[in-house]
Amino acid sequence: MVQPSSPPFDLSRPAFQAIAKYRAGIVPILYRKVTCKRRGGFRFTINGGSYFEPVLISNVGGAGDQISKAWIKGSKSNKWEAMTRNWGANWQGLSYLNGQSLSFKLQTSDWKIVTALNVVPSNWAFGQSFRSNVQIHA
Fold first, then answer.
1. What CATH fold (topology level) applies to the domain 35-131?
2. Residue 58: what pLDDT?
3. Whole-model pTM above 0.85?
């Protein structure tokens, strides 16, 4: 199996200009991944409204600095729905999930899969953030 490629860095103009030696196009950047130890579990922040429910996934530890796949499951469903990356650490599904408790399954860049069951209660509201009891450990 081939590991997924790293996503591009998304930098603001001031940040880009601070590291760029010239002001044009693509700047090659050398970097290496390091283990990231986090306290507490993953955080899931539900954004959007009604039929558009992007989920910000944060506080990701271990070598899993990048979530490579994500799935969501509402309490009224018996199957996991694949989510797509919307932008950055924001993921979205296509199902209408209002009024349901939510569970998440995450695969990290180092192929580890963890499941956070019923981490979001059924009375959730947009803009709320919820902490799971699971984390990636190196």
1. Immunoglobulin-like (2.60.40)
2. 86
3. no
